[in-house]
Amino acid sequence: MRIQGHELGLFAIYDGHLGDSVPAYLQKHLFANILKEEEFWVDPFRAILKAYEKTDQAILSHSSDLGRGGSTAVTAILINGIRLWVANVGDSRAVLSRGDLAIQMTTDHEPNTERGSIENKGGFVSNMPGDVPRVNGQLAVSRAFGDKSLKSHLRSDPDIQDTNVDNSMDILVLASDGLWKVMTNQEAVDIARRFKDPQKAAKQLTAEAVKRDSKDDISCIVVRFRG
User: Fold this and answer.
1) What local confidence, expressed as pLDDT, does residue 159 receive?
2) Cα separation of 15 and 24, whole Å?
3) Sequence-separated (6 or more) residues with CB below 8 Å from residue 141
4) CA separation (Å) from 219 to 149, 182, 202?
5) CB atoms near residue 167 (< 10 Å)
6) Rounded-to-integer distance, Cα 40 and Cα 217, Å
7) Which InterPro entries does the UniProt record give (predicted)?
8) Domain 2-224: which CATH class?
9) What angle do CA 28, 50, 20 make, to 5 degrees?
10) Measured between alpha carbons, how far is 153 from 101 in angstroms, rounded to an integer?
11) How many Cβ atoms are within 10 Å of 79's Cβ, its own excluded?
12) pLDDT digits (tens, 9 = 90+) for 99-134
């Protein structure tokens, strides 16, 4: 798309829990809110940060309609084909291929990693029930949109990374945790690079995750940069 003379590529994965109302809301509103920020063209970092927080506040204020669920998110904004901005909350991940090497552009927000923040807010991390750490024994991520019942113990501010796009980069893989639980970053990049068509690459990654018996939701997007 073109906005104010700029070419923008907008890509995202939203992985919901307890229903799909919050991911649907994010799909409709998150990028719109980012681009509404007046400072986006001069300070994308600040604009993305503010838009994520405003969007989460809107989701919480509409919880009577959207329900009590929530969602992770990973977003990528490519500006004029030369500047890439990636942000995330939760454990959906973005991995960049640069010079054949996989570079993780996001941070997995896991309860054990951010235990201090959760406990400082009066929450706790427990492996019961189940076998993975969860906030208050319920949610397996420490940051998310929505989740009103847990919000006092969760964060919704994103980690944000940016980089210049150059000829050493060929693809970007965005995917939910269902892919990353059964595949390393390098494996995902190596598989995706076999395909010129990014849609075929994404389908192959999803099929491979299913073949490896992933038990979680699997959503995937592959972005191929121009040469």
Assistant:
1) 97
2) 10
3) 72, 89, 90, 91, 109, 110, 111, 135
4) 26, 13, 9
5) 9
6) 32
7) PP2C, PPM-type-like_dom_sf, PPM-type_phosphatase-like_dom
8) alpha beta
9) 30
10) 36
11) 18
12) 889 999 999 999 999 999 999 999 999 988 777 899
- Cα distances (Å, whole numbers) of residue 144 to 92, 119, 140, 153, 227: 10, 17, 10, 11, 35
Q: What is the largest CA-CA distance in the chain?
A: 52
Tell whether pTM > 0.90: yes
Residue type, 39: E
Both tokens of 123, joined, read 């929450």
- DSSP β-bridge partners for residue 163: 84
Q: Which amino acid is located at 146 in the chain?
A: G
Check if the beta carbon of residue 127 is closer than 8 Å to that of residue 183.
no
What's the rounded mean pLDDT across residues 134-143? 93
Amino acid of residue 142: S
- Model confidence band, residue 227 (pLDDT cutoffs 50, 70, 90): low
- What is the rounded average pLDDT of the residues 29-58? 96
Backbone φ and ψ for 154, nearest 5 degrees, come out as: -110, 160
What spatial distance separates the first Cα and last Cα of the chain, rounded to whole Å? Answer: 19
In sequence order, the β-bridge partners of residue 146 are 70
Please answer whether residues 98 and 65 qualify as being in contact, where contact means their C-beta atoms are separated by less than 8 angstroms: no
List pLDDT tens digits, range 57-107.
Answer: 999 999 989 988 999 999 999 999 999 999 999 999 999 999 889 999 999
* CA 180 – CA 218 distance, rounded (Å): 9
